[in-house]
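Protein modeling request. Please complete all fields; requests missing the sequence field cannot be processed.
Requester role: graduate student
Desired output: 3D structure, C-alpha cell encoding
Chains: 1
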Amino acid sequence: MSESPATRLPDGLPVIHRETVRPEWIDYNGHMNVAYFVLAFDYAVDALWASLGIDDAYRERTGCSTFAVESHVTYQREMKRGEEMLFSVQLLGYDEKRIHHFYRMYHATEGYLAATCEWLNLHVDLAVRKVTPMPEAVRSRLAALDTEHSALPTPAEAGRGITGAGRSRVARAGGGAGA
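Delivered output (179 residues):
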C-alpha cells in the first residue's frame, strides 16, 4: 500500500491512496463533479490491485484482469479544487472469481468523510472475455487481507440501494409497493 502502516484514517485503516482535486474536476457548482469521485475511487482500486499483484505485469503475464460489474457511491460532503483526499479500503468478501471491496474518501486536512464507494469486481480472462478463477497467489493475498479486516464492522453504507422521497416510480412500474 502506498502509505506507512502508521498512517491511519478515522476508520482505523491505513491510507491506500492519496489524490488532490484537480482543476478540471470542478463543475459549475464549484465543487468536484460526481464523475471524478468515481475516477478518484478507481485510482484507489488500482492501488489495491497493485498490492494484490494485479498490475500491468500481471495482465501481460496472465492475460487476465478485473472488470467492475457493480459500484455504489455515497456523497457525504463536498471536495473543492486543490483539496487533498485520503482513501482507505476494506475487503468485504471474495471468492475465486469475485472481489467485494469498500472505500472511504476523507478530506486530508479536515478529516471528514467525503464519500464512500462499494465495488464488486470479477476476475476475467481477457482473451475469451469470460470470468475465470484467480491464481492462488492472488487468492492468498486476498486471504491475508480478509484476515486483517475480519474483525471490522460492515460499513453502514455497504449494501445500500437508493431510496427516494415519497412514492417511487420504479416501485409503481413494477406493480410493487405504492402501485
